[in-house]
Amino acid sequence: MKLNIGSGFVKGAKEMDGWTCIDFAYEPNQTEWQGDYTYIKHDLTTIPWPVGEDSADCIFASHIFEHFTYDQVLPVIRECHRVLKVGHPIRIICPDPRIFVNNWQVKNQAFIIGCYGQDNYDRWGYKEHQGMAFTDMFNHDHYDHNLCPSIDFLMITMIKVGFDKVVEMNSVNTMSHEYFGKNDDTNMVSIFGNRPIMSYYLEGVK
To answer: Helix, strand, coil proportions of the chain in percent (round to 5)?
Structure first.
């Protein structure tokens, strides 16, 4: 089983063919969730997940950890470790606070537009509210985000629960090409390297 946690709807994502997706928002009667995909409706903070121990070949978690609270991260990481097979990988993508701070220091408005889009840039008045513009990704003001999940925090948590290897990657490299490698020759960004303007990429092996 290849497991995508907090997947959202993956309709049209060819790289998700054959994956099992877990998302609390799953609604089978809504068009965007329909298609030849396997979904499990479940709140990831409700432990245990309806997934067997040592049953997942890999786990992919893209832009989900910022939705948890601080106290929820350790149980979720521990559950990832439980369901993974020994010697198998997890890939995590998160918004990177380092990138946001670096762009705040030079007041890079193009970065903010690239992150949120022009509509949200105008709607929330980011041009006039610089502090909000560069921190909204990590707050609950306009998005259902609760945490500023630094890579060090997640790495330490992964080490704590017993991951054997924990390594920062980038948007185009991976320790596990068979699971997280780009599988076509198009110029489209791989789902496993999504949102490179704002993200860090972290992999671990159980």
So the answer is: 35, 20, 50
